[in-house]
């Protein structure tokens, strides 16, 4: 058995488990592939951008870089927490692009047996953030797996690290669910 990034690999190079950050957003338990999580920070002061509609909560400055922050509860019917004591900012990365999400609590890292992950949407749906779940166990509720790349596509906000090529993301109007 060898360890490779956020996976534990069998001797035949097949992943056995994957590590996920377990967070809570509203009433939803969310799993984020740990390889996408750059930082978890105490909630930052945000610069609010005037927007008519969007999940964009504002901009945070993290280690000198501007990071757009989205609030999933503005898009999804997952409830909103009024308890800000555990609220955190998770900075996520996908191919050099960074985005922040506001979470109500960081609950730890979960090693998940890959064989237990269940795909809910059998055909990718262009405007969905969650396509797979980790079914509940005795100690852990059902975890909805966040598609970080999809989050960046749908929010249409992210920033790039200086010195890296921008991520080229293309989404057709049909994929994005626009009419």
Summed up:
This protein has 179 residues and is mainly β.
Distinctive features:
single chain; 179 residues; mainly beta; eight-stranded mixed beta sheet; six-stranded mixed beta sheet; 44% strand
Question: What does this entry look like structurally?
Answer:
With 179 residues, this protein is mostly beta strands. It has two helices and 14 strands. The chain has helices at 148-155, 173-176, and strands at 2-4, 7-9, 15-25, 28-33, 37-42, 56-62, 65-70, 88-94, 97-103, 105-113, 118-119, 130-134, 143-146, 159-160. Strands 1, 2, 3, 4, 10, 11, 12 and 13 form an eight-stranded mixed β-sheet that branches. Strands 5, 6, 7, 8, 9 and 14 form a six-stranded mixed β-sheet that branches. A hairpin with a 2-residue loop joins strand 3 and strand 4. It is globular, with a radius of gyration of 17 Å. The model is unreliable at 1-5 and 162-179 (pLDDT under 50).
